[in-house]
Amino acid sequence: MQDYEMKGIWRKVTDLLAGEISEVSLKTWILPMVPVYADDKVFILSVPDAFSYTYVIQWQNLITHSFASVCARPYDVQIAVTGSQEIMEALRRSTSPNSSAAVSVSPDEIRRTAAQLNPQYTFDAFVVGSGNRFAHAACVAVAEKLGGRNYNPLFLYGGSGLGKTHLMHSIGNFVTRKHPEKKVVYVQCEQFVNEFISAIKEISYDDFREKYRSADLLLIDDIQFIEGKEQMQIEFFHTFNALHESGKHIVMTCDKPPQSLASLEERLRTRFSSGLIVDIQPPDYETRVAILKRRAQQNNVNVPEDVFDYISANIATNIRELDGAFNTVLAYSLLAGSIDLEVASAALKDIIQPRPSRQITAQMMMEVVARFYNVSVNEILSNRRSMDITLPRQVAMYLCRFVLNMTFPKIGEEFGGKDHTTVMHACNKVSSDLNSVNSSLSHDIEEIKKRLSV
After folding, report:
1. pLDDT tens-digit map of 225-257
2. SS3 letters across 50-69
3. Which stretches does DSSP call E strand in 17-116?
4. Per-domain residue ranges for the chain?
5. Of 283, 331, 390, 392, which one's alpha carbon is 20 to 30 angstroms from that of 340?
6. Which fold is adopted by the domain 3-111?
7. CA 10, 14, 15 angle in degrees (round to 5)?
8. Tell me, which fold does domain 362-452 have in CATH?
9. What is the pTM of this model?
10. Quick one: pLDDT at residue 204?
11. Which of 248, 250, 236 is CA-nearest to residue 154?
12. Going edge to edge, which strands form the sheet with 34-38?
C-alpha cells in the first residue's frame, strides 16, 4: 500500500477515534502513532516507545473496529514500538523486490515522528534577525556539539509566537538526521505532566522514567507549566539530574526567565540557570519583512514591496500573528485575482484598523514597554533590581520623560512613588546607553515608539 493511502486511512481512523477518546488521550497517545506498513491483511502502526505502548494497547479493539468502519474490510491491526523486531521486519518486507507493498515512511521520518518533531521546523527555514540571532547561534551550537557540557541546559525564553518552538524542533531535526543512533525526545510540558499523572494512576513509574531518562537529547516546551505542581517538580528534578550527570543534553523553552518562575522549587530554578539562558525578542521591522518574503517564496507568489511594508509596519507583536495576516492576504487575493496594497488593506481591515487619535498616558507607556520586554506592569512598578526588570523600567521612565514631557517627580509618582533622583538616574542611564556604539537600545526604543504611534 502506498504512503498516501496509509496516511489517508489513518487520518480517517483518528477522526473516528476523536469521538470515542478524550482530547488529551488522543493528542498524548494516539496521534503520535505512525502507519509504517500495510498490505491486504495487515496494517502496522508504530508507537514511539514502550511507555506509550502500554497505554495505546488498551484501545487496540477500538482502533481495529475503527479501521473496519473506514475500510469496510477486516484488518489485522498491529501496534509495535519503533525500532522493535516487528517494525524492522515490516520494513524488510516492504523493501523486498518481490513485495507489492511500498515503504510508507523513511527511517528518518520514523525517528522524527517518534520524537514528535515537526520536519518543517529546521534551521534553514528559520529567519534570523537581531532579536533572535544569539538564540539561533546557541541552538546551532547545541545541535552540532551534542553531549558537551557547554550550554547544558539551554534555556530559551520569550513571548508567544517568537520562534522558540521552531528552534527547539530545529535542534531535534538536526540531531535526528546527523546522529540517527541518538534518542531524541521532544515533549510539551503539558503532555509531560499528563503522562506523569497516567503513570501514577497505572503505577508504571519505571516505563515513564525509562522513556525520558534514556534520552540523549530532551527537548521540553513551555516548562512554565510545571509551576505549582509539587510532585511533578520532584520527578523532573531527578530526571534532570539523571540526564545532566550522564552528559545528556536538555533544552527548555519558557515564557519567562528562570528567576521569574516564582512557584518553582529553588533547586530547579538554580539548575535551569546553570547553563545558558537566552531571550528571544519580538522581530524588528527588517526581520518581519524578511519573514514575509520567505513565506512568499515558499508559496511561489509575487508580492509587491508596499504590501510587505504594510503588513510588517502594522503587525509587530509576534511571528505567529504575522504569518496569520500574510495567509489572510493570500487567501483574499485568490478571490480578488491579484495581490496589491488595496487587496491587502481589504483583507486585513478587521485586523489592522486606523488608530484613532489618543492621548498617551504613563500607564499606556508602561503597558507597551512591558509587552515589548515580556514582563508585567506590576514588575516594572516593583522594587526588583534584576536586569530583566530594571531595563524595561528605565526605558519606560525615559520615554515618559522625552516623549510625554513629564517632570521627574511626576514620573516617580506614576511609577509607584519612586524618588525623582531614581528617575533622573534611569533617564541618564538610557541616554548614555543610546550613545554607546554597540548598543541595541536605540532599536528597542524606535520599535516601542512605532507601537505607540508617536
Report:
1. 898 888 899 999 999 999 999 989 999 999 889
2. HHHHHHHHHHHHHHHHHHHH
3. 34-38, 42-47, 76-81
4. 3-111, 133-279, 285-347, 362-452
5. 283
6. GMP Synthetase; Chain A, domain 3 (3.30.300)
7. 115
8. Chromosomal Replication Initiator Protein Dnaa; Chain: A; (1.10.1750)
9. 0.62
10. 73
11. 250
12. 34-38, 42-47, 76-81
* DSSP conformational letter for 219: E
Q: In the prediction, which pLDDT does 394 show?
A: 95
Structure confidence at residue 99 (pLDDT): 46
309 exposure class (CB count in 10 Å sphere: 0-12, 13-18, 19+): middle
Grid cell locating 352: 489592522
Contact 104, 38 (CB under 8 A): yes
Give the CB-side neighbour count of residue 50, counting CA atoms within 13 A.
12
pLDDT at 84: 62
* Residue among 43, 281, 266, 58 nearest 157 (CA): 281
For domain 133-279, give the CATH superfamily: P-loop containing nucleotide triphosphate hydrolases (3.40.50.300)
Q: What is the pLDDT of residues 381-396, one digit of tens each?
A: 999 888 889 999 999 9
CB 229 within 8 Å of CB 192: no
Amino acid, single-letter form, for residue 113: T
Ordered DSSP codes for 144-192: HTTT-STT-SEEEE-STTSSHHHHHHHHHHHHHHH-TTS-EEEEEHHHH
Cell of 92: 524488510
What is the Cα–Cα distance from 400 to 426, expressed in whole angstroms? Answer: 11
Higher per-residue confidence, 426 vs 23? 426
CA atoms lying within 13 Å on the CB side of residue 159: 17
- Give 227-294 as a DSSP string: TT-HHHHHHHHHHHHHHHHTT-EEEEEESS-GGG-TTS-HHHHHHHTSSEEEE-PPP-HHHHHHHHHH
Query: How far are the Cα atoms of 10, 357, 375 from residue 446, in angstroms, in the given order?
Result: 50, 20, 19
Coil/strand/helix, residue 383: coil
